[in-house]
Specification:
heterodimer, A: 251 residues, alpha/beta, 6-stranded mixed beta sheet, 4-stranded antiparallel beta sheet, globular, B: 293 residues, mainly alpha, two-stranded antiparallel sheet, 2 strands
Chain lengths: 251, 293
């Protein structure tokens, strides 16, 4: 399996505070990689730097590189719009637009001019089917997305992200606002989606990391402490700190 | 326990009556305007009042009471002002909310809000000595006291309201919507047009309505700057006299209880109804577009 994302000496400051202290990490294609660690360790910050979301925050100063298929996404010549199209993101709190279900999924296709009128419909349908949402919403595509349940909204957000056929899917604690049944649906969805995408997920839930992730990275205070196959991280951690965290001594 | 309940009920009563006071005032004003205005129609037909543009209520012998030209003037000046103020105001609001750095916003916004505090008589003065000569020069007119002058000045006066309210509603759009849009590969412009503006649509409508209200009701500025001719205007280069200016000019001198006196209340009632219609329309538009973008 190939390396899809290569993070090299990534450092990030918010104002004077160093939030990421030189992260090095290789993420393989068609796998799920979980970022775990206590609150404030920088795992969400790391995730957001993979699709340059920190560009929107003027106080953020970043150095180092993130390579997607060998190309540095922080290269000045690279268009941030292209990068974000290739690297989709799902957020912690479901954030569908206050538009109809159909318009939500069609949004990315329309703004990137990936499909015109007639071609839109099948692609929207395909994205919704991939997220097991089609059965539930096919008769009410014109309904406001805000009328869906939390779990449905999150699956809609995943459908919206994969409609533009990205290569990488970043998920920032996608289940933290959801009930167990919705969570298990999303986890099943992730396991299916990894056949097509490289998925990176931030999670607070260590059981979730063990259920879905092939690889796990443990972060603490802005540093990457340990990275390896999930089973190894949870069963035979090499570092004292990792052992204490995964066994529940702190965090 | 009893005391707490009594206080609770008392406070409910206090707030209820506070709320009702506003309604009472509103109905009182409308009732008075309507009651006095209606007396006009003992001697003047509705067709003449609304259909004629001949306004000469204090003429000896045969006075005339047609308000059409003033109605047209008010609508024309207001519409002209909005043509200028809406794009400018929403553009500025979008700049402040989406583009400007916090530093720029922190001094620009208070400055714009200060503009709302300029007295209308000062704006009218600037209209007479500055804008009107400029208009006359640019368009080769003998003088610039016309509808265009009024529209420009009213636009300036309505701008702070439109900008402040529209910007507040754009900033109230949750950050998550913007992030979702950016994460899908949208740029700033696309995000503004497709996400922020639709999501803040009801607030923008409210901003426009408040701006229209400011423009329709404004009196001193238009009285000073638009030339005050009661003839039917043929375009923006003609002098006009609005409903508000007419009331302000004539009510001080009119003899109490005459037809002329009552007809001025009639003008007030017409103004009131216009504002009411604009507000109702806005309410309808805003609720129609909410969440159904």
């Amino acid at each position: 399996m190939d390396t899809k994302l290569k993070i090299q000496d990534l450092r990030l400051h918010f104002g004077k505070k160093e939030v990421l202290k030189g992260i090095n990490l290789n993420i393989k294609d068609n796998t799920i990689t979980a970022l775990i660690g206590p609150s404030g360790c920088g795992k969400s910050t790391l995730l957001r730097s993979i699709n340059r979301m920190h560009d929107l925050d003027p106080s953020a100063k970043l150095s180092g590189s993130v390579f997607l298929d060998g190309e540095n996404i922080y290269d000045r010549k690279k268009s941030v719009v292209d990068i974000r199209r290739k690297i989709g993101m799902v957020f912690q709190k479901p954030n569908p637009f206050p538009k109809s279900i159909y318009e939500n999924v069609a949004y990315g296709l329309k703004i990137n001019q990936l499909a015109k009128h007639k071609a839109l419909q099948p692609r929207v349908e395909h994205a919704l089917k991939s997220c097991y949402l089609w059965e539930e919403v096919q008769d009410q595509l014109g309904k406001s997305a805000l009328e869906l349940s939390g779990g449905q909204q999150q699956r809609l957000c995943i459908a919206r992200a994969i409609a533009v056929e990205p290569e990488v899917l970043l998920m920032d604690e996608p289940c933290s606002a959801l009930d167990p049944i919705s969570t298990s649906k999303i986890e099943a969805l992730m396991l299916r989606l990894k056949e097509q995408y490289c998925i990176v997920i931030v999670t607070h839930n260590m059981q979730q990391a063990q259920r879905v992730a092939d690889y796990t990275a443990f972060m603490y205070l802005g540093e990457l402490v340990e990275f390896g196959e999930t089973a190894q991280i949870f069963n035979e951690p090499q570092m004292e700190l990792t052992r204490n965290y995964v066994s529940g001594h702190f965090g | 326990m009893k005391l707490r309940k009594a206080i609770d009920q008392l406070m409910q009563g206090v707030f209820l009556s506070a709320g009702l006071t506003a309604v009472v005032f509103l109905l009182g004003i409308f009732g008075m305007l309507l009651f006095n205005g209606a007396k006009t129609f003992k001697e003047v037909s509705l067709a003449e009042f609304f259909g004629s543009s001949n306004w000469n209520p204090s003429a000896y012998g045969e006075p005339s009471f047609g308000i059409l030209s003033m109605l047209v003037s008010t609508l024309m000046v207001t519409a002209g002002a909005m043509l200028i103020a809406i794009p400018l105001g929403i553009g500025t609001a979008a700049y402040l909310s989406e583009v400007a750095s916090p530093k720029v916003r922190n001094w620009l916004k208070p400055t714009i809000e200060l503009l709302a505090g300029v007295p209308s008589v000062a704006v009218g003065f600037i209209g007479i000595v500055l804008v009107a000569p400029a208009i006359a020069k640019v368009f080769g007119l003998s003088n610039g006291l016309n509808a265009l002058n009024g529209a420009i000045l009213l636009a300036v006066m309505a701008l702070p309201t439109i900008i402040t309210v529209a910007e507040d509603s754009m900033r109230a759009v949750p950050k998550q919507f913007r992030e979702a849009s950016y994460a899908l590969g949208a740029n700033g412009w696309t995000t503004l047009v497709r996400v922020v503006l639709p999501a803040s649509f009801s607030g923008i409508i409210a901003a426009i309505i408040l701006g229209i209200g400011r423009a329709i009701g404004e009196t001193m500025t238009v009285l000073m700057a638009t030339g005050n001719a009661t003839a039917m205007p043929n375009g923006f280069f003609d002098p006009v006299r609005t409903l508000t200016a007419t009331i302000a000019i004539e009510l001080g001198e009119v003899a109490y209880g005459t037809n002329h006196y009552y007809s001025l209340f009639g003008l007030g009632a017409v103004l009131f109804v216009i504002s009411l219609l604009v507000n109702l329309l806005a309410e309808k538009l805003a609720s129609k577009f909410r969440y159904k973008l």
